[in-house]
Write a structure and sequence with these properties.
two-stranded parallel ribbon; about 325 residues; 2 strands; about 0% strand; mainly alpha
Length: about 325
């Protein structure tokens, strides 16, 4: 991943004015159906109803057993939630942060690499952890930790549909994180928590696809649009319980669980809008949807369409 998150919060993106209300023609179910069909691609097959029912039931059951569910995806480093909490505490010094980062050699290497990247362009090479953290700043360090935490999602080594889908899902996670962060200011939500929710919400979908691989053979997935929409909805609930199990902020878990609810908290509203815009961007880029489709022209207001345009400039 490039430095898009750092650019987002370092001032490169202009501050947006409060946008108008979302377009009245918004149809998240239609977008979810198209998105699922795109993810499934040539792996779709006419699955028997019993197979669909079994996959959905297993996803629902796992949502009641977060410890078991969390074992089906790579665990985020245990140090990450601790660091994220510290980064929200204004009283924590740079030296204390450096001490926590120093506990993990992988994080040390990532922080130093980032500080010496072309984006920051230090006059002389950064060689100490304290200097690197000072250069990155709080937002830069938070976003770097989020990237490190979620990167294992694309490192699935087993065969099956989950392995094929993981990079596509990660592309959505990246764009959802950016879009949710951009929408946060419009609904008075926390920018970083919006980003974190965008990255986290797809974890349950990876688990769901792994469950599907156990039921469907040869890397196939059910072709039904109705099944796909339901799978996306249930997997979000699974993501929420895994987020709680991993000790992420309760506000993030609640936002994932309640994304799309009309009376959901502000963070859930930012996530729902970001999720929708990210899916539209991927569908347009894949040639599955036209820029002038009604889902875009009638479903998004002008501010959301500008966000859609910004996503086209992201590099994975």
């Amino acid at each position: 991943m490039k430095n898009w998150i750092n650019r987002l919060l370092s001032g490169a993106e202009p501050q947006a004015a409060a946008p108008e209300e979302p377009g009245g023609g918004t149809d998240h179910a239609a977008t979810d159906a198209l998105y699922y069909l795109w993810l499934a691609g040539p792996a779709r097959f006419d699955a028997p109803p019993e197979a669909e029912r079994l996959i959905l039931e297993q996803v629902r059951t796992l949502a009641q057993n977060p410890a078991i569910a969390a074992e089906l995806v790579p665990r985020v480093p245990e140090l990450i939630p601790k660091l994220l909490r510290s980064l929200r505490d204004e009283s924590v010094s740079t030296g204390e942060l450096a001490g926590q980062v120093a506990e993990d050699v992988v994080l040390v290497a990532e922080v130093l690499r980032e500080a010496n990247s072309a984006y920051y362009r230090p006059v002389t090479p950064i060689k100490t952890l304290d200097a690197a953290i000072m250069l990155l700043g709080q937002n830069g360090l938070r976003m770097l930790l989020a990237r490190v935490a979620f990167r294992p999602l694309i490192r699935l080594h087993e065969a099956g549909f989950a392995r094929r889908a993981a990079p596509l899902v990660w592309n959505h996670s990246e764009r959802c994180a950016v879009a949710a962060s951009l929408m946060a200011s419009a609904v008075a939500a926390d920018i970083f928590e919006s980003c974190l929710a965008g990255l986290m919400q797809d974890v349950g979908l990876i688990v769901a696809f792994r469950l599907g691989d156990r039921i469907c053979q040869n890397g196939k997935v059910p072709a039904s649009e109705a099944f796909g929409v339901e799978l996306l909805a249930r997997s979000r609930q699974l993501s929420a319980v895994i987020a709680r199990h991993w000790d992420f902020p309760d506000t993030v878990a609640e936002a994932i669980a309640r994304a799309g609810e009309p009376d959901g908290p502000n963070l859930a509203q930012a996530l729902a809008q970001g999720d929708h815009i990210a899916k539209l961007r991927l569908l347009i880029d894949a040639g599955k949807l036209a820029e002038d489709d009604a889902l875009v022209t009638e479903g998004l207001n002008s501010y959301q369409r500008r966000c859609l345009g910004k996503l086209s400039k992201l590099e994975s």
